[in-house]
Write a structure and sequence with these properties.
Layout lengths: L9 E5 L2 E8 L2 E10 L4 H7 L8 E12 L1 H17 L2 E5 L3 H9 L8 E2 L2 H10 L1
Parallel strand pairs: 3-4, 4-5, 5-6
Antiparallel strand pairs: 1-2, 2-3
Helix pairs in contact: 1-2
Length: 127
């Protein structure tokens, strides 16, 4: 049974990918699955909030099998907006398809990666 707090608020999908947003308490969770490339990045840009304010947002990319730089750029913009507004942003995944480019590009300050949602929450409590 899905409670109202965890019920998906928005869904979008295409050939080989899906996006879903939900809330977990005061946390906005965006779950991405499949392959995210140049063709999907405009949809991702429309899906994420244009002005998130000082929200706390996690992008769960554990189910992502491919993510190119155009999609990382969309997430990087979101992370920067949140950081400037005093919000929090994190990526949740252990998938090397996502973690490796973030590490190689040195984006960890704006897009910190955590293995679980709980680890992301804990990092914010420790800060």
């Amino acid at each position: 049974m899905t409670t109202d707090a965890t019920r998906p608020r928005q869904r979008l999908s295409g050939d080989g990918w899906s996006l879903e947003s939900s809330e977990d308490g005061d946390l906005g969770v965006y779950t991405l699955r499949g392959e995210f490339d140049f063709a999907v990045s405009p949809k991702l840009a429309v899906f994420v909030p244009a002005d998130p304010g000082a929200a706390r947002i996690v992008v769960d990319m554990a189910g992502v099998t491919y993510c190119d730089s155009s999609c990382l750029q969309v997430l990087l913009r979101l992370g920067r907006q949140l950081h400037r507004a005093g919000g929090r942003f994190a990526v949740v995944t252990a998938a090397p398809e996502v973690t490796r480019p973030i590490e190689l590009l040195g984006l960890g300050d704006v897009m910190p990666v955590h293995p679980t949602l709980g680890a992301a929450r804990s990092s914010w409590e420790d800060a």
